[in-house]
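Changelog-adjacent note: as of this version, every example in the card shows the full chain rather than a window. The one below runs 563 residues end to end.
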Amino acid sequence: MLSRSSRPRRRLDPDARPGVLDWLLAGVTLLVCLYPVLPIQVGSGGGGYNAFLDRQGLLEPVDVAMGALLLVLVLEACRRTTGWALPIVCGLFLAYGYYGGLLPQGWAIAHAGLDFDQIVDALYNSGSGFFGTPLDVAATYIVLFTIYGAVLELSGGARFFVNLSVAAFRGSRSAAGRTTVASGFLLGTVSGSGTATAVSVGAVTWPIMRQAGYTPERAGGVLAAAGVGALLSPPTLGAAAFIVAEYLEVSYLTVLGWAMIPTILYYLGILLAVEIDARRFGMRATHLDAGSPWRLLGRFGYHFSSLIAIVVLLAIGMSATRAVVYATILAALLSFLDRRFALTPRRLFDALSSGVRGVLPVVAVCAAAGVITAMTTKTGLGAQFSSVLVGGVDAITDNRTVMLALDVPAPAAAMFVFYYSVLSEVTPPTALAAVGASAVTGGRAIPTMWQTLRYAAPAFLVPIAFVVTDPGEYLLGRGPVIGVVWASAAALAGIVALSFAAGGWVLGVGAMRPIPRILTAVAAMLLLFLNPVTIAAGSACLLGAVARTMIFDKRRSTAGRRT
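Full-length structure tokens:
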């Protein structure tokens, strides 16, 4: 029922009310989730949690029926909140588990096959199914951070972040783009949702971008790319960051540290793209009616207090759950410094409701991820797939990831997977952040997705640097200080080259011709490989492309004066 109404609708919209079917599904969901712990006998099943665990591997028909119902409900909740993509993937894994015994047994991915009872047992009565680590993390950490973000937003924090960005960049030709990127970053530090950030920022900045000359699709691309940064920006990051911390058994503060440099590189890439677009497409300066940024900081800067509190509390060793609870209380108390946004009981209820609704897509995805995890574990697919890729080595007997089997360090492998999971919000054909942004700007969804990919390009290449060479770990802040500095500098140059190649423009010079543009694309690849030889070659390509563009621009200017 909650999953059905998790997407915002108007308060008076009759479609926003759950129907009879939704109430029925909600009741069945409650029943099948409570069934394992109910201390009553239900036919040949039931009997309490201990009795349920004792039947692991030997489920009764009632247990199988309850597990099958929960499977259908999880997939339906996932469909309602995120679309068809993940349910289809889950269906493929279920089909693999059931029909895998029909594959030629000479194939490495073949297995004996699972019957329906075994599949339900793996999903409903094991630690790798529905109630595995992803859902545990969602219930323990993610829901608290989502509620914190909703409290801070309704206490005036979101409005302050946008106003501060507007005040800081008013009057320049690229003010509209800069404001959007800065607003996305500031709001993203507490949102943890790319789509929600894109829509929230777009509601304020789209009129500014339209005034500056942005097309709806290009504006939507900037909004979506800046919004997805919410999933990469400390201190909240996205849901997957908590799962990374749980699986690697490290503190959440450690994961925040790993994300710092990649986050800077990501937003640098977006800002460069915005600056290039402002010059390439002749954006107009926007004269925004905003006060002094210093005055705004002096009056409303207290909204940063709860963010700082989270980092400080984590640094002194407090658990992430306690830290975010204290930060939420602090944000609620500070809301009374501005009467317009004071969290009265009614507004506090709205904040809690908004936070719970915001976590629903994450919970549905985490529960559905249990299907993939259970099938991978039960069939041995993970180990088999690893052994296929690592030809010539001994068979992998544990369920490590492919990258771990290839000797990629665990933090680098985990952050690689984390970043590419985040990018699902900007990757066609779903690209939820781009779809949300296009709804705000009125642009076409598919062209908006392609614009988003251009702005978010750094996020696709930087994670590859984590795993292709050993120095890639330096970008996570792991290693000697000198190593972190030179790797960061090389990656920064790579992002600059990538921005020039994607935008077809060299800042301070002018438009690029095809050959220099290709050279800068090659330079980006070489620089992000983080090897001394490739860095030298990439630097030469980048400097050569810039020099060639300068010569061409000078010749063009000379020819223009002569005519």
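Structural remarks: Residues 345-379 form the longest helix (35 residues).
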